[in-house]
UniProtKB/TrEMBL annotation:
Keywords: Cytoplasm, Methyltransferase, rRNA processing, S-adenosyl-L-methionine, Transferase. It is found in: Cytoplasm. The lineage of its organism: Bacteria, Pseudomonadati, Pseudomonadota, Alphaproteobacteria, Hyphomicrobiales. It catalyses: guanosine(527) in 16S rRNA + S-adenosyl-L-methionine = N(7)-methylguanosine(527) in 16S rRNA + S-adenosyl-L-homocysteine. GO terms for molecular function: rRNA (guanine-N7-)-methyltransferase activity. Belongs to the methyltransferase superfamily. RNA methyltransferase RsmG family. Residues 1-10 have a biased composition (Gly residues). Specifically methylates the N7 position of guanine in position 527 of 16S rRNA. Residues 21-38 have a biased composition (Basic and acidic residues). It comes from Bradyrhizobium barranii subsp. barranii. This is Ribosomal RNA small subunit methyltransferase G. S-adenosyl-L-methionine binds at residues 119, 124, 189. CDD domains: AdoMet_MTases (cd02440). Residues 1-38 are annotated as: Disordered.
Length: 256
């Protein structure tokens, strides 16, 4: 143990412990306040930006379409705070889970110009299709939605993206009375079981439309159930964005 010398110093000549109390102490640094909400928003922005790169590799689009989709996503995030348009848990994967998943339908109906989206909700796939079809002469996308708040959002999305969407505030089963003119392709996403979707789409299919219905891993069970009510010859396309499938139907006939 070191011995103390005269004057309170250790034998080494260094100040003893506690000496220098009269010296001014260093000021405690002030930590900047962190706005957790802003930090979370910035974090989500980064995640969504990375997800966008992945999505556009899965479903490439033109620069003009990308700009429209950017405006749409910005609007959706703004409205999401007051109207539940998508499941909050899917916000980090907006581009892959919703945008790319919707865009892949275009490649399955490359000649289709006139679309009908039943139960458009937050605009998937209808607004995405409208953004993709904006540069196509004669293109139109009918968006049928029964909830007034969501229909209002869809109208604003059509305006902001300058896309050829036509919003119909109506019950899904009333789509035939609302939609005038021919439809090349009818679709619906996360709306109802397949056998019910076929019932909604059948009047349009009777007039020449084909159907594309995105479905999950339980597609076989839904096809088995649908076959109890409809004569169908489905063609299945594996989704690019997950484990789901897209059911393509070119004709249906109700079982007697």
């Amino acid at each position: 143990m070191k011995q103390r010398g005269p004057g309170g110093r250790s034998s080494s000549g260094k100040p003893a412990a506690g000496e220098g109390a009269s010296r001014r102490s260093e000021p405690t640094p002030i930590k900047p306040k962190i706005d957790k909400a802003s930090a979370n928003d910035r974090s989500l922005d980064s995640i969504i930006a990375a997800d966008k790169l992945t999505a556009l590799r899965l479903a490439p689009v033109s620069r003009e379409t990308e700009e429209r989709l950017d405006r749409y996503i910005a609007l959706l995030r703004e409205w999401q705070a007051k109207t539940n348009l998508v499941a909050p848990s899917t916000l980090p994967q907006l581009w892959t889970r919703h945008i790319a998943d919707s865009l892949q339908l275009v490649d399955l109906a490359p000649s289709a110009k006139r679309w009908a989206d039943l139960g458009s909700g937050g605009g998937f796939p209808g607004i995405v299709l409208a953004c993709a079809m904006a540069g196509t002469p004669g293109a139109s996308v009918h968006l049928v939605e029964r909830i007034a708040k969501k229909a209002a959002f869809l109208r604003e999305a059509v305006r902001v993206t300058a896309s050829p969407g036509l919003v119909h505030l109506a019950e899904i089963g009333d789509n035939v009375d609302r939609i005038t003119g021919p439809v090349d392709c009818v679709t619906a996403r996360a709306l109802a079981p397949l056998h019910q979707l076929i019932g909604f789409a059948e009047p349009l299919m009777r007039q020449g439309a084909k159907a594309l219905f995105p479905k999950g891993q339980d597609v076989e069970a839904e096809l088995t159930e649908a076959a109890k009510y409809w004569n169908i010859q489905p063609q299945l396309h594996q989704s690019r964005t997950g484990d789901g499938w897209i059911v393509e139907l070119t004709s249906v006939e109700q079982r007697g």
